[in-house]
Specification:
Chain B: InterPro entries: SL1/TIF-IB_Component (IPR052669), TAF1A (IPR039495). Chain B: Pfam families: TAF1_subA. The structure holds 2 protein chains of 2 kinds. By secondary structure, chain A is mainly α. Chain A has helices at about 1-5, 50, 55-60, 75-95, 100-115, 125-140, 150-155, 170, 175-180, 190-195, 205-220, 225-235, 255-260, 270-280, 300-310, 315-325, 330-335, 350-365, 370-385, 395-420, 435-455, 515-520, 535-545, 550-565, 565-580; strands spanning about 20-25, 30, 40, 495, 500. In chain A, the strands form 2 sheets. A 3-stranded antiparallel β-sheet of chain A has the order 1-2-3. The N and C termini of chain A lie far apart (about 90 Å). Helix content of chain B is about 70%, strand content about 0%. Among the domains of chain B are: about 1-20 and about 30-135, no CATH class; about 315-455. Chain B is extended and about 85 Å long. Chain B is mainly α. The chains are: A mainly alpha, B mainly alpha. At the A-B interface, helix 8, helix 14, helix 20 and helix 21 of A face helix 3, helix 4, helix 5 and helix 6 of B.
Chain lengths: ~575, ~475
């Protein structure tokens, strides 16, 4: 029944038997029920949202011209991004983010962006000029227009701004296209979009859609970190890759549009984060709502989460709070984002919290590949002789348990990454010319996938996992002793004047001098071989949990250490220089 | 931009110097120093972009998983990962040395061959798809497909495929395509030869009944013509064509064209453009033997084989032939040949080889002539043969496993290493204990000729006479 409804709109006669009796294949194509002839036509996704979207209307002004040719309707690049943002916001809402995010915050940010970048909500939208040009383009098939930029110029555009990857069909047809020199895009302004020098305008890119999302989440102080957001993107809970397949059928993507909307890599933490800062400054946003100690993003809160996930004793939380308090990184002014304020260092909440835990581990266990094992041996001895009053935390046992899980999960993740399917069913082609080639290739890929899928016995990828904040789970209900949350730190603490202090009297600094982050890009430099293995293991653990490079956590560790030991370090350096004199 | 600016500055500085009278005279003659380009960003931070997972990296990782799985013969796992790798077909830049489509063809073929339950139909379907993937690879894929069909006994299908490939044309033929086409034709010729030989056998069988079928005979001749034309073509090109040469020679010999056959084999063996190929000499030797050719030409064929592959199995025949010769030089060569063969581990336990050596050595010792031959051969081997052939361990094992081998070896050892050598001592002791007659005779023989050992090992220099 459903199928009949789907095929109702298609009432052409079949080319082979001239019957009108259509069915739908699994791939969404029409086939003739009488003679089993399969057409090239696919079912059009009917999206009434799009046509009645008032926001879109404000841009295009008036009714859309529907051209007779196969080029679909007129649309603008920003409309594409608007659709993507909408999809992403809906997905976030489904994940439990408050509805305000989509309808108020993100909507307003986006409107503000369109206005600031003069794309809409202003007297003379930049699109006007674009439109004029595009009309000329479509009406006459001009080959040589002086103001028309060469395609080569377009291709040489720096890609550092965004992730404007080229599609295969795009690259392979480059040579052919340059002959005809027509810059080709399905959207009205796709060709100009990449060309314009938008230094002061902040051009929209695919990774920036996530910057928008993160900014909105941060504004609402939603309990989701950037690393988590990106993980959800990769796990497929938030549309990103191939999101264009949700575009209505009439919005045809081709030519340079592919460069804008087609991504072939996962978003990178740094990039999304930096773009978010840039965006916030570009939009002239005021100071963001305060991050207080009751917020999820506050280091004291995040540390609880990461301590749990790292299977460390709950007692450590007391220590992370003390470190946070001592160096003032729990202060509202430190944590709250003030766009455009260049004097303060911007906070990456998730990395900061992980780094605090690493510093605490260094304070208590030293992590020099020696002292932590010594303490562990003591704890083991004690646990053997005395089973009352809870177990003492054994570093060695913890290491073995966590390393095992980490290795298993890492292997799983690596395999998943290798097994990722990047292409969707909706094939894209740079131009009509290579359409049939692209379709043929696509068909062959599907055939081969089926053939070898059958051989391996696994049909397609397993369904995506349910979204979860935790990647590693440890439960005290397990009786195998693999959970360390309840273990006590007694063995490594001693009482001094009524205060519990660490037995460990020493500390080693990751670096004596910090680099200039603005010049060098990093506060410190991490090379695995230069550091103890225990330290590296801890970094690797958090690097896995946050899906970022260990060096980023290391940077933050160095920053915290320098705040913590600032006075001592200063004295020591002075003393050394005096000695040398 | 930076580098550009820098260059300009340099230029300016040079101009300034030229104008300034205070500058030393020498500097005006020197061209301005051009500094090399610097990267745009001086402090390139180690960016996370290098670690960014993208299409290409994901597929590269996928490929290495496939390779690992294949190395461990985990075909199911390899197939699983290949399912995800095939996507790279859609992003196939043929600029890469080995393109994804080639990878998929090779890996897919390997997997399908090893999954025993995958049907021939499935394989054919895969191959047909691969054929459409690249013009340059078309003939190669066809050939591979044909091999697989042949391995599965589908000779008619293979023949059909070859004919189809032969009629394929695409644009201008490159030199490479030309060669591949020759190969396709040669394999078709081979199949023609196959049906020729089948019909020949039919005819021979019926011939015994005194009944000859004219149509079968005609068909057989037409097969011969088709096969001969194609086979003749391919063996003109320098290469290793053992199979084709053998078949072609068989055809020629059957129809009595021995001159042509001889020419083909001579060309195949002696043309310096062809790669060195021991089989070429083997075929020539076998042909000459069949033809009852003079000893001289046979020996010269084997001599070359000896030079290329001293351990070849024909060396036994060669040695036997040479030992019988009346010429000293040839007998000397025979000794050299058999010694050289026994340098190889493959001959270690070959009774025939050892008996050849034992016979010749014994002959020389008895005649007391040419002891210097043995001495010369032994010279380069005396520091490693004792451990390689004549250890006590081997004596024990040879005695247990093969008495006649230990007999022949003991004879050689006794002469080369004297009566106190480990090998001889052990074997003769065991032999006498078991009261085997020939071992007792052997012991006597060695004892009697013990001085020979001193002479060939150079222990009594004065007694060595040419």
């Amino acid at each position: 029944m459903e199928e009949e409804e789907d095929t109702r709109d298609f009432n052409e006669r079949c080319a082979q038997c001239s019957e009108v009796n259509w069915g739908l294949t699994d791939g969404g194509r029409y086939y003739c029920r009488s003679c089993h002839n399969v057409t090239e036509r696919t079912r059009e996704v009917v999206n009434t949202d799009f046509m009645t979207n008032s926001r879109v209307q404000t841009i295009s002004k008036g009714s859309r011209k529907q051209e007779k040719t196969d080029r679909g309707c007129e649309w603008y690049v920003c409309e594409g991004f608007q659709l993507i943002l909408k999809k992403q916001a809906e997905a976030l809402e489904a994940l439990g983010v408050c509805p305000q995010m989509k309808d108020e915050v993100l909507y307003n940010f986006w409107r503000c962006y369109l206005q600031k970048s003069k794309q809409a909500y202003c007297n003379r939208p930049a699109g006007e000029t674009v439109k004029a040009l595009s009309v000329r383009e479509s009406s006459t098939d001009v080959d040589s227009e002086p103001e028309r930029p060469s395609l080569l110029h377009l291709l040489s555009l720096s890609e550092s701004e965004g992730d404007l990857q080229t599609d295969c069909s795009f690259a392979s047809s480059m040579s052919k296209v340059s002959e005809s020199t027509s810059i080709y895009s399905g959207s009205v302004d796709g060709s100009l979009y990449l060309m314009k020098n938008q230094k002061e305008k902040l051009r929209m890119t695919m990774p920036m859609t996530l910057s928008f999302c993160y900014m909105a989440l941060l504004w609402l102080r939603e309990p989701i970190t950037l690393s988590e957001l990106l993980r959800f993107v990769v796990e497929g809970h938030i549309p990103y890759l191939n999101v264009f397949q949700h575009f209505p059928e009439k919005m045809k993507l081709c030519g340079l549009d592919l460069k804008i909307f087609c991504v072939e890599s996962w978003p990178v933490y740094e990039e999304v984060y930096n773009k978010m800062l840039e965006l916030a400054a570009f939009l002239d946003l005021p100071r963001f709502p305060d991050i207080t100690d009751s917020c999820f993003l506050h280091p004291d809160m995040l540390c609880i989460k990461y301590l749990m996930e790292a299977n460390l004793p709950d007692e450590l939380h007391n220590w992370t709070c003390r470190v946070v308090k001592k160096i003032g990184i729990g202060e509202v002014d430190f944590l709250t984002l003030v766009p455009g304020n260049k004097s303060t260092r911007k906070v990456k909440y998730d990395i900061l919290a992980a780094a605090v835990i690493v510093v605490v581990l260094k304070l208590l266990f030293l992590l020099d590949d020696h002292y932590e094992w010594l303490l562990s041996d003591f704890a083991e001895e004690r646990n053997k002789n005395n089973k009352e009053g809870g177990l003492y935390f054994e570093f060695k046992k913890w290491y073995e348990v966590v390393k095992h899980s980490l290795d298993v999960e890492q292997k799983k993740l690596d395999e998943e990454r290798a097994k990722y399917l990047w292409r969707c069913e909706k094939p894209l082609f740079y131009s009509v010319k290579n359409k049939s080639r692209v379709l043929k290739r696509r068909q062959m890929v599907v055939n081969l996938q089926n053939q070898f899928g059958k051989l391996s016995g696994s049909v397609r990828r397993a369904e995506k996992p349910n979204p979860s904040s935790f990647q590693l789970r440890w439960s005290e209900e397990n009786t195998d002793g693999s959970c360390f949350h309840g273990h006590s730190l007694k063995g490594i603490l001693q009482e001094k004047c009524g205060l519990l202090t660490a037995m460990n009297p020493d500390y080693w600094l990751c670096t004596v001098k910090l680099c200039n982050e603005k010049l060098c890009g990093h506060l410190a430099h991490y090379r695995e071989v230069d550091f103890p293995q225990s330290y590296h293991f801890v970094l690797r653990l958090f690097s896995f949990l946050l899906r970022i490079q260990p060096s980023y956590i290391h940077d933050e560790v160095c920053m915290i250490e320098h705040k913590l030991f600032n006075k001592k370090l200063y004295k020591k350096l002075k003393y050394n220089t005096v000695l040398r004199k | 931009m930076d580098s550009f600016l820098e260059e300009e500055e340099d230029e300016e500085a040079a101009v300034g110097r030229r104008r300034s009278p205070a500058a030393p005279a020498g500097s005006t003659l020197q061209p301005p120093l051009h500094l090399p380009f610097l990267p745009v960003l001086l402090h390139q931070p180690e960016s996370s972009h290098e670690h960014k997972l993208n299409f290409k990296k994901s597929k590269e990782a996928c490929l290495s998983y496939i390779q690992d799985a294949m190395l461990q013969k985990q075909w199911k796992r390899a197939a699983e990962f290949l399912t995800f790798y095939v996507e790279s077909l859609e992003k196939d830049y043929s600029r890469e040395p080995i393109s994804p489509s080639e990878m998929i063809w090779r890996i897919g073929t390997e997997i399908l061959c090893h999954r025993s339950h995958s049907s021939m139909k499935e394989f054919n379907c895969f191959m047909e798809q691969m054929k459409t993937l690249g013009v340059k690879r078309y003939l190669k894929v066809c050939l591979e497909h044909v091999f697989h069909l042949l391995c599965n006994g589908q000779i008619d299908e293979a023949y059909q495929n070859l004919s189809l490939a032969e009629s394929w044309r695409f644009g201008e033929q490159t030199a490479l395509q030309d060669k591949e086409m020759k190969l396709i034709q040669a394999y078709r010729g081979l199949l023609d030869y196959y049906s020729w030989s089948k019909q020949k056998n039919v005819l021979l069988e019926r011939g015994l009944d005194g009944f000859a079928d004219l149509s079968v005979e005609q068909e057989m001749h037409s097969c011969f013509r088709k096969a001969a034309v194609n086979l003749k073509e391919i063996i003109k090109i320098p290469g290793v064509w053992d199979l084709f040469v053998k078949c072609y020679v068989d055809l020629l010999e059957f129809y009595g064209d021995h001159n042509e056959a001889r020419q083909v084999l001579n060309e195949y063996a002696y043309n310096s453009k062809f790669p060195a190929n021991p089989n070429a000499h083997v075929y020539l030797y076998q042909f000459l033997k069949r033809q009852g050719e003079s000893k001289k030409s046979v020996v010269s064929a084997l001599k070359i084989l000896h030079d290329i592959v001293p351990s070849h199995e024909l060396m036994i025949d060669f040695n036997t032939m040479l030992q019988k010769s009346k010429k000293r030089k040839k007998r000397r060569l025979g000794l050299e040949v058999i010694f050289a063969a026994l340098d190889y581990a493959g001959w270690k336990e070959n009774v025939k080889a050892w008996s050849c050596l034992a016979r010749q050595v014994k002959q020389i010792v008895i005649s007391e002539k040419h002891l210097d031959w043995i001495k010369q051969e032994w010279n380069s081997r005396k520091d490693w043969w004792p451990a390689f052939h004549f250890s006590r361990y081997l004596a024990k094992r040879n005695w247990q496993e093969n008495k006649s081998l230990s007999y022949e070896k003991a004879l050689v050892a006794g002469i080369l290493l004297g009566k106190d050598g480990k090998y001889f001592k052990y074997v003769s002791h065991q032999g006498c204990k078991a009261q085997v007659k020939r071992f007792r005779i052997l012991k006597k023989f060695v004892n009697r000729h013990n001085p020979v050992y001193l002479r060939i090992s150079g222990l009594s220099d004065s007694s060595v006479q040419p």
